[in-house]
Amino acid sequence: MIPPLYAILSPDVFIGSLDDWARRLAESGVRLIEYRDKPASSAHLLDAARRLVALSHSLHFQLIVNDRADIAAISGAAGVHVGQDDLHVESARKICGAEACIGVSTHNLDQFRAALATSADYIAIGPIFPTTTKQNPDPVVGLEFIRQARALTEKPLVAIGGITAERAAEVYAAGADSIAVAADLASAADLPSRVACYLRAAAAARHC
Predict the structure, then answer these.
(1) 68 pLDDT exceeds 60?
(2) pLDDT of 196 over the 60 cut
(3) Domain span including residue 202
């Protein structure tokens, strides 16, 4: 199962030590963290991923690496998240292994249907709302896309793009199993309270 809150740990959003941020996120209740640093060198990515994996063992969260199946495999991360322009899911699976958690991003129904035919463990959909944390984002798909995707599969769905704690309830209610968040967590004055808002919204949606 994918936990209801999926933190995207990116240095252009989480300013300062990523290790410290990972610790704060985990201690606030986050159980899945994706490490994303697109412009970083391979050496930097591997070094950071290894540190975060070590933290994940002691702080009891799963670490997913963005894009780089090779870095995920070498560092011992729990898995990798690939986009439409990255390695195919099955190629990433060969690198990371059968037990790895592999996710894939989709931005329209054609991409989503293609993802369903793969061994992806979860499928990300979005952007649900306008986002400022990604350069050249894909067109906004809205809540209706979540409903359409939910009707097509029982695989875990991760909603991403411009989602805040205030809008989390409607995203979970539309059918998302998890919400991927960066800016709304990085900007929180009280991180444990912000995390708790998402978890309460998820629990309420599941009991509706």
Answers:
(1) yes
(2) yes
(3) 5-206
